[in-house]
Amino acid sequence: MEDYLKIKKDALIEYFRNLGSAAVAFSAGVDSTLLLTLAFEALGDRAVAITAVCPSFPEREALEAKRFCEERGIRHIVLSFDQFAVEGFRLNPVNRCYLCKKELFTLVKKTARENSCEYVAEGSNTDDLSDYRPGMRAIEELGVKSPFLDLSMSKADIRALSAQMNLPTFNKPSFACLATRFVYGEEITEEKLEAVEKAEQELIDRGFSHVRVRVHGDIARIEVEKSDIPALVKIADEINEKFTSLGFAYTTLDLGGYRLGSMNRF
User: Fold this and answer.
1) Fold match between 2-164 and 178-253?
2) CA within 20 to 30 Å of 250's CA: 49, 138, 197, 261, which one?
């Protein structure tokens, strides 16, 4: 495994050296953290981190991105991105991610060029191919680089290499845009996104690491690891009270447990 990871790491560094310069779409997640670290190792000052701050991106993630770049001396550009200006986003159609990613990465590419970066790289990996990810079409159309896909790297590969490199994100729970918490067709508003962020933060602050709060109208459906369900039941009254204060009429617990892409059931 060690030899395999070294081959992948060397290939990624060579990948970035061949680009000459690159801006990495940086969310402070597992994938983009490894990608940015290796881009910076390969390119130095010719590697730039670009983080887009928007209503569906939690403040805690934005702060982590800022801190990571400051600690390592990586040039970090923070963009303000108005998702609600994207036509169709608010109505939450099944291709919402495509509409949003097309506008977002158009802005990221423009910013990259303005900062002398010829290419933009993002962190999709082979695990993403097994789920419904309409945003990947936008990435392909815009010519954004996906090094992990190009080198056939899975999420497990990325976590293993991150652990080997002592990156703080190697065991960080996967995160997805807060807009993914809403059933398709339900209108997304800034108020609803804020409620979801606060609801998930409440669970995280109470020690639950893998969490999702899915929204179905005025119902909040909590997903945690099955092993964490007994602990959550013990504080059910407190969580229900908190969620009620955030505007949810009903708070439910999903007995199926935490799982990625649970809204992608058509």
Assistant:
1) no
2) 261
- Class (C level, CATH) for 2-164: alpha beta
Q: Give ∠ CA 117-122-127 in degrees, rounded to 5.
A: 160
Mean per-residue pLDDT of the chain: 95
* Domain segments of the chain as ranges: 2-164, 178-253
pLDDT digits (tens, 9 = 90+) for 34-86: 999 999 999 999 999 999 999 999 999 999 999 999 999 999 999 999 999 99
Is 140:57 a contact under the CB 8 Å cutoff?
A: no
178-253 CATH fold: GMP Synthetase; Chain A, domain 3 (3.30.300)
* pLDDT digit string, tens, across residues 172-200: 998 889 999 999 999 999 999 999 999 99
Contact (CB, 8 A) for 174 and 150: no
